[in-house]
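ok trying again, last paste got cut off:
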Amino acid sequence: MKYTVSIEVALPREKVVQLLADPAHLPKWLRGLVLHEPLSGEHGQLGTKSRVVLQVGQRKVECTETITRREPADLHEIPKTSVVHYDREIVGERMWSAARERLTDAGPQTTLWESENEYRFGSLTMRLVGLLMPGAFRKQSLQHMQDFKAFAEQGKDVREETS
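nice, full thing came through this time. structure:
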Protein backbone atom coordinates (compact mmCIF):
# COMPACT_ATOMS: atom_id res chain seq x y z
CA MET A 1 0.00 0.00 0.00
CA LYS A 2 1.33 3.44 -0.98
CA TYR A 3 0.01 6.97 -0.55
CA THR A 4 1.25 10.56 -0.31
CA VAL A 5 -0.04 13.29 2.00
CA SER A 6 1.07 16.90 2.21
CA ILE A 7 0.56 20.02 4.29
CA GLU A 8 1.77 23.60 4.31
CA VAL A 9 3.32 24.96 7.49
CA ALA A 10 3.39 28.74 7.97
CA LEU A 11 7.05 28.87 8.97
CA PRO A 12 10.32 29.09 7.02
CA ARG A 13 11.62 25.68 5.90
CA GLU A 14 14.80 25.85 8.00
CA LYS A 15 12.72 26.36 11.18
CA VAL A 16 10.33 23.53 10.23
CA VAL A 17 13.21 21.13 9.55
CA GLN A 18 14.93 21.99 12.82
CA LEU A 19 11.70 21.44 14.80
CA LEU A 20 11.12 18.09 13.08
CA ALA A 21 14.72 16.99 13.75
CA ASP A 22 14.72 17.86 17.48
CA PRO A 23 13.86 14.74 19.54
CA ALA A 24 12.74 16.88 22.49
CA HIS A 25 9.73 18.00 20.45
CA LEU A 26 8.52 14.56 19.27
CA PRO A 27 6.14 13.91 22.22
CA LYS A 28 4.52 17.31 21.67
CA TRP A 29 3.18 16.44 18.23
CA LEU A 30 3.58 12.68 17.64
CA ARG A 31 0.32 11.41 19.07
CA GLY A 32 0.67 8.20 21.09
CA LEU A 33 4.48 8.31 21.38
CA VAL A 34 5.63 6.47 24.50
CA LEU A 35 9.34 6.14 23.71
CA HIS A 36 11.81 7.09 20.98
CA GLU A 37 15.36 6.14 21.89
CA PRO A 38 18.43 5.68 19.68
CA LEU A 39 19.86 2.16 19.78
CA SER A 40 22.85 3.14 17.65
CA GLY A 41 23.91 6.48 16.21
CA GLU A 42 22.72 9.99 17.00
CA HIS A 43 19.03 10.87 16.86
CA GLY A 44 17.91 11.82 13.36
CA GLN A 45 21.26 11.21 11.67
CA LEU A 46 21.73 8.96 8.64
CA GLY A 47 22.00 5.29 9.68
CA THR A 48 20.67 5.81 13.20
CA LYS A 49 18.51 2.98 14.52
CA SER A 50 15.95 3.83 17.21
CA ARG A 51 13.48 1.89 19.31
CA VAL A 52 10.02 3.42 18.99
CA VAL A 53 7.04 2.57 21.18
CA LEU A 54 3.58 3.94 20.35
CA GLN A 55 0.31 3.59 22.23
CA VAL A 56 -2.33 2.63 19.66
CA GLY A 57 -5.70 2.30 21.34
CA GLN A 58 -5.35 -0.25 24.13
CA ARG A 59 -2.07 -1.76 22.94
CA LYS A 60 1.52 -0.71 22.68
CA VAL A 61 3.29 -1.17 19.36
CA GLU A 62 7.08 -1.46 19.32
CA CYS A 63 9.21 -1.06 16.22
CA THR A 64 12.68 -0.14 15.03
CA GLU A 65 13.20 2.99 12.95
CA THR A 66 16.25 3.45 10.71
CA ILE A 67 17.12 6.78 9.08
CA THR A 68 17.85 5.87 5.45
CA ARG A 69 18.30 9.35 3.96
CA ARG A 70 18.94 12.82 5.31
CA GLU A 71 19.89 15.52 2.85
CA PRO A 72 21.41 17.90 3.52
CA ALA A 73 23.20 16.59 6.61
CA ASP A 74 23.49 20.14 8.02
CA LEU A 75 20.06 21.64 8.62
CA HIS A 76 21.33 25.21 8.97
CA GLU A 77 21.59 27.70 6.09
CA ILE A 78 19.93 25.37 3.58
CA PRO A 79 19.97 26.85 0.06
CA LYS A 80 16.50 28.07 -0.99
CA THR A 81 16.45 25.86 -4.09
CA SER A 82 17.36 22.67 -2.20
CA VAL A 83 14.81 20.02 -1.29
CA VAL A 84 15.25 18.59 2.18
CA HIS A 85 14.90 14.79 2.23
CA TYR A 86 14.33 12.81 5.40
CA ASP A 87 13.56 9.10 4.86
CA ARG A 88 13.01 6.33 7.41
CA GLU A 89 12.22 2.65 7.45
CA ILE A 90 10.11 1.28 10.27
CA VAL A 91 10.04 -2.42 11.05
CA GLY A 92 7.66 -3.96 13.56
CA GLU A 93 6.08 -7.30 14.21
CA ARG A 94 4.90 -8.52 10.78
CA MET A 95 5.03 -4.98 9.33
CA TRP A 96 7.46 -2.87 7.30
CA SER A 97 6.96 0.73 6.27
CA ALA A 98 8.93 3.52 4.67
CA ALA A 99 8.30 7.24 5.01
CA ARG A 100 9.95 9.56 2.52
CA GLU A 101 9.67 13.18 3.64
CA ARG A 102 10.32 16.12 1.30
CA LEU A 103 10.36 19.71 2.51
CA THR A 104 10.44 22.62 0.07
CA ASP A 105 9.96 26.38 0.23
CA ALA A 106 6.38 27.22 -0.70
CA GLY A 107 6.85 30.94 -0.06
CA PRO A 108 8.99 33.30 2.00
CA GLN A 109 7.49 32.10 5.30
CA THR A 110 5.82 28.84 4.21
CA THR A 111 7.04 25.26 3.91
CA LEU A 112 5.46 22.46 1.88
CA TRP A 113 5.87 19.09 3.62
CA GLU A 114 5.15 16.06 1.42
CA SER A 115 5.21 12.58 2.93
CA GLU A 116 5.24 9.50 0.70
CA ASN A 117 4.37 6.37 2.69
CA GLU A 118 4.61 2.70 1.84
CA TYR A 119 3.46 -0.28 3.94
CA ARG A 120 3.97 -4.02 3.64
CA PHE A 121 2.30 -6.48 5.98
CA GLY A 122 3.43 -9.95 7.03
CA SER A 123 0.17 -11.26 8.45
CA LEU A 124 -3.11 -12.00 6.72
CA THR A 125 -5.03 -9.90 9.26
CA MET A 126 -2.90 -6.80 8.65
CA ARG A 127 -2.98 -7.34 4.87
CA LEU A 128 -6.78 -7.35 5.08
CA VAL A 129 -6.78 -4.20 7.23
CA GLY A 130 -4.50 -2.50 4.69
CA LEU A 131 -6.70 -3.65 1.82
CA LEU A 132 -10.06 -2.81 3.43
CA MET A 133 -9.08 0.34 5.32
CA PRO A 134 -6.27 2.14 3.46
CA GLY A 135 -7.86 5.47 4.39
CA ALA A 136 -7.15 4.82 8.08
CA PHE A 137 -3.38 4.82 7.45
CA ARG A 138 -3.59 7.95 5.31
CA LYS A 139 -5.76 9.65 7.93
CA GLN A 140 -3.27 8.83 10.70
CA SER A 141 -0.33 10.20 8.68
CA LEU A 142 -2.24 13.40 7.96
CA GLN A 143 -3.19 13.67 11.66
CA HIS A 144 0.50 13.56 12.64
CA MET A 145 1.25 16.30 10.11
CA GLN A 146 -1.64 18.45 11.34
CA ASP A 147 -0.49 17.94 14.94
CA PHE A 148 3.03 19.03 13.94
CA LYS A 149 1.63 22.10 12.16
CA ALA A 150 -0.38 23.09 15.27
CA PHE A 151 2.71 22.58 17.45
CA ALA A 152 5.05 24.51 15.12
CA GLU A 153 2.71 27.42 14.39
CA GLN A 154 0.81 27.74 17.68
CA GLY A 155 2.78 25.80 20.29
CA LYS A 156 -0.03 23.24 20.79
CA ASP A 157 0.97 20.02 22.57
CA VAL A 158 -1.09 16.87 21.84
CA ARG A 159 -0.49 15.68 25.41
CA GLU A 160 -2.50 18.63 26.73
CA GLU A 161 -5.64 17.88 24.74
CA THR A 162 -8.76 16.84 26.56
CA SER A 163 -10.91 14.07 25.15
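cool. The chain has a mean pLDDT of 91. The helical segments are 13-21, 26-29, 124-132, 134-154.
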